[in-house]
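Lecture 7 notes: from sequence to structure.
We start with the chain below.
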Amino acid sequence: MEPDDSLSRLRERARVRARGLRQRQTQAEQVMWHHLRNRRLLDLKFRRQHAVGPCFADFACIEIGLVIEIDGGQHADAEPHDMCRETAMTAHGYRTLRFWNHEVLNETEAVMERIRQVAITLTPALSRQREREQDKGTTP
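Predicted structure tokens for the same chain:
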């Protein structure tokens, strides 16, 4: 078997798994996707169920290196696994924000504001724009 064959098989498996995960979204993931899709947040491109190393991020923005994870009740017992995933994503250059399902469903605007704040700090052009706006607000 050629090395390219095994790599293409791995990619195909990852693609199929990601598609399956996208088709079985939780309600919280659906709400989050509604707010992130089509560059609705700061004109940033987010992907659903994006492969990051050996893991699949619920949502990932490649251009600023941000991963958003939405956790349900099953994650309360999976903290070591989640920490391992977060370490793997950090090793690939991503910062991870983690929210509980109930936060996304009941405090959507607060969750989106937190994501906006972090995204701005990860985006140099947006950080400079925010600084200019603050300067304008403080000058007479």
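Points to note: The helical segments are 3-23, 27-36, 79-91, 101-106, 108-122, 124-138. The radius of gyration is 17 Å.
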